[in-house]
Design a protein that fits this description.
Distance between the termini: 52 Å
CATH topology of the largest domain: Alpha-Beta Plaits
CATH class of the largest domain: Alpha Beta
Number of strands: 8
Order of helices and strands: HHHHHEHEEEHEEEE
CATH architecture of the largest domain: 2-Layer Sandwich
Largest sheet: 8 strands, mixed
Number of domains: 2
Radius of gyration: 22 Å
Oligomer: single chain
Number of helices: 7
Structural class: alpha+beta
Strand content: 15-25%
């Protein structure tokens, strides 16, 4: 069966519908982290529309995630030839350039990887908190990170260090946030953290409460009166430990949430 994108006799309206459908499929593949499929679909679109910068950026991202850094770099460069001020290509060209040929990423495909959706970054009152890390890693390491990547919260006696899933250091939480979380974690709460945004010299993460101990049943993890948000039960399910003791168990010097 002939490829409809290569059939020059196909009506214009039908082609627009087909291209729109393929755009949706390509975006869905990227959200599901199916980068091989994303590469294939975006290449199909580009055969018919080689000046499509949005599609070229998606193709470059797929190539980057597959470790094809030089190919990704060339695609981003081609986008900038079409649109010299394209912000996505400008930003990601720097990321692709930071990788040497065959160099592995900081987080390639961790077993804790999750499907990236808009709801992933949704802030919920009392349940989530976006924080900026302090004493962050050097810019070259930060340039290899990406929004949505899961990170570790490593508890210490007096603070919390953040690492990627290969235990590479990324930064630390501010003392007030660290002290709050240490108390809640020792009391039985559990948290998930992911990268919210990356800058050359900065890194922010979103911390989400995923388990609330009986001890803190009526106590939200985070309070922010200056930014009221609406609860949404569709985005998180809290489980409660009815058998948990009200006492605080002893914590080892280092542990990972």
């Amino acid at each position: 069966m002939a490829d409809p994108l290569l059939d020059t006799n196909i009506p214009a309206n039908n082609f627009k519908n087909e291209a729109s459908n393929l755009d949706g499929i390509a975006i869905d593949a990227a959200l599901a982290c199916d980068w091989n499929k994303a590469e294939t679909i975006n290449r199909q679109i580009i055969k018919q529309d080689p000046q499509n910068t949005a599609c070229l950026n998606r193709l470059a991202r797929a190539l980057f995630e597959l470790g094809k850094y030089q190919q990704a770099k060339k695609i981003y460069q081609s986008v900038l030839e079409i649109d010299p001020y394209n912000p996505i290509a400008q930003k990601n060209l720097k990321r692709a350039t930071a990788f040497k040929k065959n160099e592995s990423r900081v987080v390639t495909n961790p077993p804790q990887s999750i499907i990236i959706t808009p709801n992933l970054f949704l802030e919920e009152a009392g349940i989530t908190k976006v924080v900026n890390l302090l004493k962050v890693a050097e810019p070259q390491k930060l340039s290899k990170l990406y929004a949505g990547a899961l990170v570790n919260l490593v508890t210490k006696n007096r603070g919390i260090t953040v690492t990627d899933y290969e235990n590479n250091y990324l930064g630390v939480l501010a003392d007030d946030m660290a002290h709050l979380l240490l108390k809640l974690i020792k009391g039985g709460n559990k948290y998930q953290a992911l990268i919210k945004s990356v800058k050359p010299n900065g890194l922010s993460i979103l911390i989400r409460e995923v388990f609330r101990s009986k001890k803190f049943r009526n106590q939200p993890s985070f309070l922010d009166s200056s930014k009221p948000l609406t609860y949404s039960s569709d985005n998180i399910t809290l489980t409660y430990d009815d058998s948990a003791s009200d006492g605080v168990e002893s914590e080892s010097e280092d542990s990972t949430v």
